[in-house]
Amino acid sequence: MNDPVYVQYAKWITRILRGQLGFSFEFNAPVEQVLRMNLFETLILGAGAVVFIWVVAIPIGIYSAVKQYSIGDYTATFFGFLGLGIPDFLIALVLMWLIWDNTGFLATGLYSDEYRTAAWSFAKIWDLAKHLILPVAILGTAGTAALVRVMRANLLDELKKPYVTTARAKGLTEWQIIMKYPVRYALNPVISLTAYILPFIISGSVVLSFVLDLPTIGRDFLRALTAQDIYLSGAVILFSGWLTIIGTFVSDLLLAWVDPRIRLEED
């Protein structure tokens, strides 16, 4: 700790290459051990949020573009702006109160008390699935609202192109015209945003993890920042960078698969 900052950083990077992320002073344990404690729950929550965003945003975006300026389009736009404007933790508090008031179910954590330390079984998996519904929906709210607007704007642009007019002249049904090419081409920006959704799962779930008592890396990250635990906070930031790289790689593969215009050219 008495070395200059650049020397400390060089030593930290060198040890990372050997699989050593340092020691967490806040948790009094090696950083890799702290990350492993909540890594599975963080990845499950992140994967669920990404699937939720795609499954909800793409159909709504298609409907808003096809039914432009309809009541459904205005409704989707209204709720989209609400999703972008209302903080996740506020939505979580309201939904927790509504669920508890109407069903008596305490929608906090990812496991019921009897399953927190229990061995994996079908009952524990089902309990995890029930507790995932609320945090996944809340965490995916902002991403869904943003992707709906992106999908709508790009599909509207595609529907105005000449090849769509040609397809109508050939007698194709409206469903075939929309789904065959315009939707596939409009998905390109949506797929590209996947690279930024994955690291957002950690940064966006920091406050939400405390409100819903979720055992995630985001909550550990906030504790590390509060306690000035440089090794743990640095490792989480590094992990977010890895997620960005993985997301970019996956989005590139999906773009090459979805859009036939994108091909790797050999020199």
Provide a descriptive summary of the structure in words.
A two-stranded antiparallel sheet has the order 1-2. The longest helix has 38 residues, at 122-159. A hairpin with a 4-residue loop joins strand 1 (23-24) and strand 2. Helices cover 75% and strands 1% of the residues. Helix 9 packs antiparallel against helix 12. The protein is mainly α. The protein is built from twelve helices and two strands. The protein has helices at 5-17, 31-66, 71-85, 88-103, 122-159, 162-169, 174-180, 182-192, 194-203, 206-211, 217-226, 230-258; strands at residues 23-24, 29-30.
Task: Offer a quick outline of the entry.
The chain has 267 residues and is mainly α. The protein contains twelve helices and two strands; from the N terminus they run H-E-E-H-H-H-H-H-H-H-H-H-H-H.
Task: Please state the overall shape, judged from the principal axes of the Cα atoms.
Answer: globular
Number of strands: 2
As a whole number of angstroms, the C-alpha radius of gyration is: 22 Å
Task: Name the average pLDDT.
Answer: 83
The helix-strand sequence is: HEEHHHHHHHHHHH
Structural class: mainly alpha
Q: How do the strands line up in the largest sheet?
A: 1-2
Oligomer: single chain
How does the major sheet shape up?
2 strands, antiparallel
Give the termini distance in whole angstroms.
Answer: 50 Å
Helix content: over 70%
Number of helices: 12
- Stretches where pLDDT is under 50 for at least 5 consecutive residues are none
